[in-house]
Every structure is written in structure tokens, then in C-alpha cells.
Amino acid sequence: MRVAVVYDRLRAEEKAIMRAVEELGHKPVRLHLNSTHLSLGMAVGFSIALERATSGIKAYSSAAALEASGVKVVNSSQVIANCYNKLVTTAKLLESGVPAPRTAIAFSLEGAYKAAEEVGYPVVVKPVNGSWGRLVSLAQDEEELRTILEHREAIPSPFYRIHYIQEFIRKPGRDIRAFATEDRLVTAVYRVAAHWITNTARGARAEKAELTSELEEIAVKAARAVGGGFLGVDIAEDSERGLLVLEVNSVTEFRNAARVTGVDIAKEIVEYAIGA
């Protein structure tokens, strides 16, 4: 079977996925989005594609184009859309009864100040799309929030005028990245950091996490909420409410997680795609 790997940057993860495709007896087809084109509705020579573009809009667009040609894409364009926009992700989680931090959204500075008061300071301000903790800020009070939002209002993109305001969860020096499908928890790591942003792209350290029934339940439920697939679910541990889902990632990095857990996540992704 020919299995396409769709990417815009060839990282360790994409190389591992290509090796896994070969080890499972299939032929990997490299689809580098920066040096190719896709003709909608035309035969492409493969029936399964693994979407790995780091750019959310490229991932969504290329997945939709391949689906128009009858290709099964993992993850699908609809799942990518549900994860690419944090507002949509949170809405899907809450619709499905998945516990998440208190969140509000505003489309003006005045609305954002009112939203923050309702959520309760300190608040985390995030762009509705993006990854690696970029432009994620913590505001202790309205003065700090005003400085953050005035800076964002000056950025020439309409996305930065959508103000996503979320309560600050006082995590125990870590959060959890769970790798899950709509049916099971594959593995998970703690992302440990002194900084409140616990992202390995920002220097957090990955450690093998305890796989509990509670963790599996919330990770699988979150995966189902966004439409299923092979997903990275970011989870915070709240001292009073337990596990809360922060985000769901449709094109998840896994190099550090594979190293510390010993789980061949690349192989898990390929097997899921072929058998899903």
C-alpha cells in the first residue's frame, strides 16, 4: 500500500513516520507542500495520507484537497479545523461534557476587560490559533491585560482581534500531554517546567506519566469531542476539580514522548491510519 506523508517541514517525527510505513511493509510517498501542488478531484496514486504540516492552514487545506480526491486523511480536515481554532476546540469539549478551564471570548478591548473580570484574574490570553506557546500571555490584572491586548490590536491580522481569555490553572509544575484516539489512550508524558508555560518547545522536560483510568477517560473523551483521530491532548491537573483539558492537537509532536515512554508513537500513528 502507498501511504502519503504530507508535510511542510521534515522533522524527526516525519522521518520516524516514514520509517514506520516501510517497516510495516508499505511504501511511503513524500508530499512536501512547499514543492508540490494538489489537483482537486484528480487521482493521486495513494488512498491514505498522514497529515503532518506544521502550519494549521496548510494542514487543513491540504487535507481537504486530498479528501476531494477520495483519500482518507489522518487526521481529517474537519478534525484539523476543530483543533486549529482554540475557541472551536473549547466549544467542542464543553458540548461533549469534557471538563475545561473557564473561558470567555471577546471581539473588542472593552469586551475583553469584562470577560477577564468574569473569568477572574489572573487570566491567560491566547491567540485562537497557533502552537508552541507563541503569544500566550499571563495577565495578573487589568493593567497587564490592557498592555497585552493593545499590542495584539496592533498586529495586522484579524485573528489577534479575537480575544480568547482563559482562567489561569495553578499547575503542580507540570501538565500532561496524552496521545489518544477515540478508542484508547496510547501513552502520555508529564511536561515539567519551572515556567507556567509547560511546553517542550519552550524548554519543558518530558517525563513518563502514570496512565490512570481517569486520564484515559478524559483523553479519549476529548479525542471524540473533536471528531476522533490520533491526537495530542493537553491536560492540566487542578487541585480541586481534577483533570481539565486545555487544548487538543491534530498534528502532534512526539519525539520527546517516544524517547521517555519507549512507545513507538510513529508506528502507532501508521497502524491507526491503516486500520482506522
Q: Any overview of this molecule?
A:
The chain has 276 residues and is α+β, with helices and mostly antiparallel strands. It has 3 domains: 2-82, Rossmann fold (3-Layer(aba) Sandwich), CATH 3.40.50; 103-167, Dna Ligase, domain 1 (2-Layer Sandwich); 170-275, ATP-grasp fold, B domain (D-amino Acid Aminotransferase, Chain A, domain 1), CATH 3.30.470.20. Helices cover 35% and strands 25% of the residues. It contains 9 helices and 13 strands. It has helices spanning 12-23, 56-68, 77-84, 86-95, 109-119, 142-153, 213-225, 255-261, 265-275; strands at 2-7, 27-32, 48-51, 72-74, 103-106, 123-126, 137-139, 163-167, 174-180, 185-192, 205-208, 231-238, 242-249. The protein has a 5-stranded antiparallel β-sheet. A 4-stranded parallel β-sheet has the order 2-1-3-4, sandwiched between helices. The chain has a 4-stranded antiparallel β-sheet with strand order 5-8-6-7, with helices on both faces. Helix 1 crosses helix 9 (265-275). The protein is globular, with a radius of gyration of 19 Å. The mean pLDDT is 94.
